[in-house]
Model the fold of this input.
Amino acid sequence: MACINDHRCSTCPHPCKTRNVEHQKWYSSQSVKNKELVTGKPYPECTVVWNAWTQDERTEAIEKSGLKRQTGNKETALGHDF
Done:
């Protein structure tokens, strides 16, 4: 994906990359129930819809949902937290 500066976002210092990363971190921190509420689609279709949205659509959905990024211990499939 190219940004407004005509170079690849993976090497881009432009805020377009930072904003997308923050959107992904926010979405990843949400529960499945919240993901379904934000996109209006059942799991796993909600993630497909989220990935298809533009950054502006994601920003609007985040603001409209009123949900904050979740924090806490991450657990693996074996139940270990890091």
